[in-house]
Design goal:
This is Methylated-DNA--protein-cysteine methyltransferase. With about 160 residues, this protein is of the alpha/beta class. About 35% of the residues lie in helices and about 15% in strands. It has a four-stranded mixed β-sheet, with helices on one face. The protein has a two-stranded parallel ribbon with strand order 5-6.
Length: about 160
């Protein structure tokens, strides 16, 4: 059984879910609770929210949470690659495909990106189109733009 709790943030209401050991989902809006969710603010969810809040304030650049996204082996490989994209930088779908060992898998990378169950913590917002355009994001293009601008604004704090 998963636990979930909702928070109001500067990018809207966010739901964070965990399975008792790791964060499993982040939702950009309140979901209707179904049988496999308990509404509970656990210690792990509180920590995830604390890190998210500090990220949105520009105070942290990297999350240190246990993550357990559910998906195929290929999806997990893509999601792992996404966690390696440095704060404040972007990659194209093709670059992510290359990092998985299959540079022709750009479409499959796009599908995996679209199915990312833990956006922000797994930074799929850092993946852009080959032409530099912002394409697709589960939270909407406005939130993707907000997150990228937040990181660009705070990148100077890294160096």
């Amino acid at each position: 059984m998963k636990n979930i709790f909702f928070y109001q943030t500067e990018i809207g209401e966010i739901g964070i879910a965990e399975n008792g050991n790791a964060i499993t989902n982040l939702y950009f809006k309140r979901i209707e609770l179904i049988d496999n969710f308990n509404l509970a603010e656990t210690k792990l969810i509180k920590e995830a929210y604390s890190q998210l809040k500090n990220y949105l304030l520009g105070d942290i650049k990297k999350f240190t949470l246990p993550l357990n996204p559910e998906g195929t082996d290929f999806m997990k490989k893509v999601w792992n690659s996404l966690t390696l994209i440095p704060y404040g930088q972007t990659c194209t779908y093709k670059e992510v495909a290359k990092s998985t060992g299959n540079e022709k898998a750009s479409r499959a990378v796009g599908l995996a990106n679209n199915k990312n169950p833990i956006p922000i913590f797994i930074p799929c917002h850092r993946v852009i189109g080959a032409n530099g355009k912002l394409v697709g994001y589960s939270g909407g293009i406005d939130i993707k733009k907000y997150l990228l601008n937040l990181e660009r604004t705070n990148i100077k704090d890294i160096f």
